[in-house]
Amino acid sequence: MAEPSLQLRLTQKLALAPQLQQAIRLLQLNRIELREYIQEVLDTNPILERTEGDAGVEGAEFEPLEQAAGEQSDPADLQEWESESFGNEQWPESSSFEGYSGESQIADTSADSLREHLLWQINLAHFSDVDAAIAEAIVYGLDEDGYLHDSIEDVRASLAPELLVEEDEILAVLHRVQRLEPVGVATRDAAECIRVQLSALPSDTKARDLALRISRDYLELVALHDFDELRKRTGTNEQTLATALELIQSLEPRPGARYDNRRDEYLVPDVYATRVGDSWRVTLNPENDPGLKLNRYYIDLLRKSGGADADYLKGRLQEARWLMSSLDMRNQTLLRVSQSIVEMQEDFLEHGEMAMKPLVLREIAEAVGVHESTVSRATTRKYILTPRGLFELKYFFSSHVKTDRGGTISATAVKARLHALLAKEPHSNPLSDQELSELLQQAGIMAARRTVAKYRESLGIGSSNERRRLYRRSPLEK
Known about the structure:
Layout: H1 18-28, H2 31-44, E1 48-50, H3 76-79, E2 85-86, E3 106-107, H4 112-124, H5 129-140, H6 152-159, H7 167-178, H8 190-199, H9 208-217, H10 219-223, H11 227-234, H12 238-249, E4 266-267, E5 271-276, E6 279-284, E7 292-294, H13 296-304, H14 307-344, H15 346-351, H16 361-368, H17 372-379, E8 383-386, E9 389-392, E10 400-402, E11 408-410, H18 411-423, H19 433-442, H20 449-458, H21 464-473
Parallel strand pairs: 5-8
Antiparallel strand pairs: 1-7, 2-7, 3-4, 5-6, 8-9, 10-11
Helix pairs in contact: 1-14, 4-5, 5-6, 5-7, 8-9, 9-12, 13-14, 14-16, 14-17, 16-17, 19-20
């Protein structure tokens, strides 16, 4: 029998104060989710109430907030719980954004119903606390089709510093999320989506193994309808190949499509970018103002009461103060991050996509003085209205491609150049990816053929063979 012994272990844990937890949660919410959360608090906390003429009320007219990036609210105001109102600045009589006349009628691509469906399953799937947090970060990174465009490193950064995990932990949770309903969600591309759905089928499914092989190695031939070459490479007969292809075609390449509710929601900008003289100014949408104040009746009641009633009201008062402080922190962070992005992408705002600069989360984090995960939360599903249109803040972040002078150019700018080249290509002889790569290199952009193919596919443009067939069907020829 083993002798009892004492062992000393060192573990690293990060404990978050409730106020910081609330601030983090509010920062990652979009406008609609934030409004719903505030309404839930109002329904349960008698200390809080709406201010008269609340700017956040549905359908209220609004103008951009005239609070600019860098202007800080007085923290001492938050210490005085007898302060009656919060954030009730007076809006200007006329908008500082010329030509804007109401909410932007652009469909929201957040696909909330898919997210809620997945989060519901995660709550029932016996995930550990750490795995559940990872799974939620993955779910919040999905697009309307159910694809995960964030890299594993991006997911890891979004969890830090509150949660420090390794990449293999994220991959393990990702594989579990991909098996949730709808199967294939959270995959990185159509090929992986098909493989996950095939792997989830019973092992005795007819032609499943061949379909897996095709999805892994020969999907390009399927897209080109080159079935003769496909039959040669797989070494199978026509009937078996047809069965495998029928199985692949029965799968759902867009697992989130059935939950798509973009027709029912519209985007409203969180911030505005306007040109003021020689510089750009960022202002908040007044709907970001929560329009909250403390209820004087219950404040007076708290002064007079005692016992359990006083304890209850003190708890609700503390909850109200935390909420108001967290909302103020959210607005300030969003404003500072947006201003920093605009300053770094001035060339894009003035000259368009070809002038977009490479930008990563770390650069904005260093400029603002926050962690990368804070920037990630502040830019996810938050939108900015500029003279060039409405964009998600994440749009301004882009990887880079090297130039022949040793510098870099953003992937967005490369895509814009690529799109311009394809728009002018001769219909009788469409440009191949190799030819496009050579043309970009002549312009000083060192983009390999595979990089060109990836960017072309992301633009939704087919290969040269596909475009040639499309041009043949068109009566217009260059």
